[in-house]
Amino acid sequence: MCVAMISVLSRFLIRQAKRAARDAAIQKAILAGMFEVSSTAVNGRDVQRLVRWGDQVLTVRKMKNVLRATELDRPGEYRFDALDDAQSSDPTPYLQRSEIERREIWSASDPKARRLLCQLTEALSPVHLAAIFLLERAAQRSGLSARQLLDIFKKDQPIIAIACQALEFDRIFQQLFEEGLLFGRMAKFADGYALDGPKEHPTFARLPATDWKIILFSRHQKRSETSSQIGYSLMTGYPMFGLAGTIDQFPEELGAAAHLMLDCGPLDYEMIRLVARNATSVELPDLDGALDLSAVSLSDIAIAIRPDLSAKQMAYKISEISFFKKQRQVERAGPVDKQRDALKDRKTKKGKPTGSDIIMPAKPEDRQALGVFADDLSTLSGYGKARDWGLDLQIDLGHYKEHRIAWRDVQSKVLLVGRPGTGKTTFARALSNTLQIPLVATSAATWLQRGHLGDVLERMSNVFEEARDLAPCILFIDETDGLGHRHARGEYSDYWNNVVNRALELLDGIAKTEGVIVLGATNRVDNIDAALLRSGRLEKRFDIPLPDIEALSGIFRTHLGQDISRVVMSALPILSANETKSGDMYDHSSSTGKPFRSWLN
């Protein structure tokens, strides 16, 4: 088992961060009226210490909730219902005292008060720990000692460039400085790219109240804009930080001026293990192979590293997050992304929200990264005639694109009927991957969101217009039965008549839906107006039953892949034991009456 040691720098930064968090809790407790700094004569001299004040019956949990709602940067504006009866204490600017003075106050305070304040102090976040350890790694790579590194940071005008491939490092790093979790002093930043000339003065945030001001150049700005602003920033005399993904993303001017350039590198699993070890005292297990965390942001660590999870659960969650983040990257990496973005831009300009999701087809080469989201109809089991229709549609769509057949010759309007959980949505996505065309996913519930009848009818029209703009594509309408029935009676009969009539109008005619494959889905087909199921509309119906044993075996083969042999072998001892007691295990739901072992084979 690999156990990484914490360096002197990490220990120092973590200690500083914990002390800063404790000081922030003390300041909040003073502002909220829970504590005050009082003077007491001891051996002929005045000694300041923290004294408990306010409502003495509040639980630690209640006090923590009050402190979480208390802001450090707005003194004099706090009022909490839980403390209405508490006496008002002097909101001493505790954080503006010198570090030596704060330590003396802490040391002179009653042990009981100190224990309570330690309970009220928030634990250091795994996200902040990750940023500290990344900074430590960069220092180790630079060959500088902890003392040399700290001396550079404490210069009057340090110029420091930090590169880190971990997503959101720049924002977390900035937060550490703003909250005083690094070096015990709160800092505020000004955007260096906003300096337009040598006489331009940087604009700093009004809060927090601190004299440590830093000019920041973050990774989100364009490199071509930096040549003059860096010189302007140096003329102000303020410290200057640059943050980017890699060293080569820094402009040459910053590299020439910097006292220090650090490269933190990427986020990896060993870094996650180090964070978990220090945040939860849990050692994460080794993984079978390398885990690519390039798509994982620092804020995602807070999802996976939690004290209420076991080591295996933490490792699983970080792997799961990595998988889904990589999946999104792959979905957005292809040229079809431009088509989707252009369509969204047109929708925004037109001001016509549809509430639909546009899902681009997964490429076959992305199967390993996307897993089940890259499945096509050739890999699915249990869909019967619906699967055959989809594979035939693949041929017809090719002929249509080659102008060998007209759209009226393509069976393009289908209704899927099946119980919840039978895979109707999965089928729609697999059809998109098979045909390699976009999927526009919507539902009757989306159309019927709160609003006037005109809003509902407009959403319906807009989603069909969206699909036509994206054609050839698939328009998947889930919960089709939610469109109602024209024979409904009562106060709202006119409402449902208008909704169904608009659906009929949109579905009618080849010209209106050319290039659009309309795929409806329902588990209550009897609730659909009969006119929607007539010729030229959702005329073709496919029932999708629950999978039988043969379909289940195909599903296992698809999703388990090479692991299926190990799963089968692990099941054989159980089957053998049952056969010894009662003979072969038969699939009584199957007309063949074949033993269950045969399906495993």
Structure write-up:
The protein folds into five domains: 8-120, no CATH class; 126-263, Rossmann fold (3-Layer(aba) Sandwich), CATH 3.40.50; 269-331, no CATH class; 336-543, P-loop containing nucleotide triphosphate hydrolases (Rossmann fold, 3-Layer(aba) Sandwich); 549-600, no CATH class. The protein has 23 helices and 13 strands. The protein has helices at residues 8-31, 60-68, 99-108, 111-120, 126-142, 146-153, 169-178, 226-236, 252-257, 269-280, 301-304, 311-331, 336-350, 367-370, 384-401, 424-435, 444-447, 453-470, 493-507, 510-513, 549-560, 564-582, 596-600; strands at 35-42, 45-52, 159-163, 188-191, 213-217, 240-244, 260-263, 357-359, 413-417, 439-443, 473-478, 516-522, 540-543. Strand 1 and strand 2 (45-52) form a beta hairpin. The protein is elongated.
What can be said about this structure in brief?
45% of the residues lie in helices and 11% in strands.
Largest sheet: 6 strands, mixed
Helix coverage percent: 40-55%
**Uncertain stretches:** 1-5, 74-91, 582-597
At the first level of CATH, the class of the largest domain is Alpha Beta
The Rg value, from CA coordinates, equals 32 Å
CATH fold-level label of the largest domain:
Rossmann fold
Oligomer: single chain
Features:
alpha/beta, Rossmann fold, 45% helix, 5 domains, 23 helices
List the helices and strands and how they pair.
Layout: H1 8-31, E1 35-42, E2 45-52, H2 60-68, H3 99-108, H4 111-120, H5 126-142, H6 146-153, E3 159-163, H7 169-178, E4 188-191, E5 213-217, H8 226-236, E6 240-244, H9 252-257, E7 260-263, H10 269-280, H11 301-304, H12 311-331, H13 336-350, E8 357-359, H14 367-370, H15 384-401, E9 413-417, H16 424-435, E10 439-443, H17 444-447, H18 453-470, E11 473-478, H19 493-507, H20 510-513, E12 516-522, E13 540-543, H21 549-560, H22 564-582, H23 596-600
Parallel strand pairs: 3-6, 3-7, 4-5, 5-6, 9-12, 9-13, 10-11, 11-12
Antiparallel strand pairs: 1-2, 8-10
Helix pairs in contact: 1-5, 5-10, 15-16, 18-19
